[in-house]
Amino acid sequence: MKLVYFVCAWLSFGLGVFGAFVPIIPTTPFMILAAFLFSKSSPKFHAWILGLPIAGPAIKEWGDHRVVRKRAKILCTTMISISLSIIWWKAPVHMALKVILTIVLVSVCMFILTRKSSIEL
């Protein structure tokens, strides 16, 4: 089972990196999932992902306290808004796909916005 977690962790990490450059794919959930899967499969890679300078602290705060920083919330909301604008006004895709993507992205945005922004002492 560790091998399955390990492979899924790398897949999730790859999707997270890809999502950093593609507005429709969210980065943070994939990185959090990768950290979780690495924690189940490889302590070495779990420590590595938590030690990443850009994503590590945010992943650790989520894992320890279920906190999403205010800056991350603003960035997430902005990127989702841009993605939805592109989907609705520029993307030549079927209306059903637009509706499904809107539901998913608005749900992700609402989830992120309803999390704590700082660690309460």
Features:
single chain, 121 residues, mainly alpha, 0% strand
What does this structure look like?
By secondary structure, the chain is mainly alpha-helical. It has one domain. The chain is built from 6 helices and no strands. Helix 1 runs antiparallel to helix 2 (28-41), helix 2 runs antiparallel to helix 3 and helix 5 runs antiparallel to helix 6 (95-113). It is globular, with a radius of gyration of 16 Å. The N and C termini lie far apart (37 Å).
- Average pLDDT: 89
Q: What is the number of domains? A: 1
User: End-to-end span in angstroms?
Assistant: 37 Å
- Principal-axis shape equals globular
Distinct helical segment count:
6
Largest sheet: none
The percent range for strand residues is under 5%
Helical amount among residues, as a percent range? over 70%
Secondary-structure content class: mainly alpha
Low-confidence stretches: none
How many beta-strand elements?
0
Order of H and E elements: HHHHHH
How large, in whole angstroms, is the Cα Rg? 16 Å
What is the topological layout?
Layout: H1 2-19, H2 28-41, H3 43-50, H4 56-65, H5 70-89, H6 95-113
Describe the structure concisely:
By secondary structure, the protein is mostly helical. It has one domain. The protein is 74% helix and 0% strand.
